[in-house]
Every structure is written in C-alpha cells, then in structure tokens.
Flavodoxin domain-containing protein
Amino acid sequence: MENNHINSPNYINIPNNSQKSILIVYKSKYGATKDYVKWLEKALADRQIACDICQVDKTPTQDFCGYGAVVFAGGIYGGELSIAKSLKDFARHLTEGQKATPIPNKLATPKLHCILIGLSSPLAPHQSTLDKNFTPSEQESIEFHFLQGRLDFGKLDSVDRERMNAYREMLRARASRTSEQEALLENDAVDFASKDSLKCVIDSLVAKGE
C-alpha cells in the first residue's frame, strides 16, 4: 500500500494568499505516477516552490484559493483516466465556490493541471482520450500534460492484462509501427518514464507562479 503523502506531513497546510505553493493530487496503480510525483516534488523544491501532496482518496475539502495551482496526476487505462472523476468533482467545487463568493476573484482560483500517464508517445494525438474523459467546457479549464509510464506485464491485474493483449493484437494488425510500439510487442516489461519529460509541466507551473 502506498503512503498517503510523499515526503510531506500527514496534513495539508492551506497557504495564505501571499504564497504560491502547489497541491499535487495523485493516484498510482503500478508505481509510475508515484515516481513522477516524487520527481516533480523534487524539481519544484529545487526552485524553492513548496508543494503539498496527497492521494486522490485523501484530497482535503478546505478552501484551496491559497494555492497557485492544483495538479492531478493519474494513469490512462483503456482510454479512461483514473483520476477523471475526482478532477471533475474538484473543478466543480472550485466553480461553486466562486459562484458563492459575493465578488468572485478569478485570480484567487488555482490553475488546474492534469498529468495523464500512459504508454503512448506524448507527441501522439490524444484528443480522443480527452473527449472520452472530459466535456469541451471542462477541457477549457484544465491544462493537460501527457507523459509516458512503464509496463510490466507480469504485474498487471486480469482486466489490464486483457486490455493489453487486445492492444497488442491491434498493433500486430498494423502495417507500420513505431519503435515504442515494437517494444511493447517484443517485451513483457518496458519503461518509458523519464524525469526529463516533466520539463513541460515544470515550466508551466513556474510560469504560472511568477
């Protein structure tokens, strides 16, 4: 079982409005998402940006207006994002909070980011995945980042193993395949996770916090 927090206290400190810290909410099934969260936490700390971290089922319900950004991270399984419902509920909570405020302050509302971790290249088309998980209006309010994870066929549960077998059959039927797709066919374990791929996420978070 994973810890509720990674190198963070067993509670969430809601910062005051002068701070620009970040809340990271994640769900990790096989470990890649958790590794990305640890790498992101370290990269932000190196830039003197504080962050709080919690698993998706431990997300606090306090006022989040003190955060500069809230990042949700989770895996993609069969085209479905593991943290989609929690992110949508969170976004709805923020919207309702703004409506309940006599004078809504959009600047005080944290920017929402979503890190989606799968096996496909970040450069591949992902609009169909977004459309499957989010409405057009929801997509407008969230900044998405696609990263690659890893696969160990021997550790997959029965549902994910069946999905992977079906995906492999689809790949075999293709006339041409990428080198990464060939790796998925030839190996039972592949690791595409990379610290360097977080640069786009870090750059965006740092820019939003300046």
About this structure: Helices lie at 32-46, 84-100, 127-133, 136-140, 158-172, 179-186, 199-209. Confidence is low (pLDDT under 50) at residues 1-19, 100-107. The chain is about 35% helix and 20% strand. Strands lie at 22-27, 51-55, 69-77, 80-81, 111-118, 142-148, 150-152, 189-191.
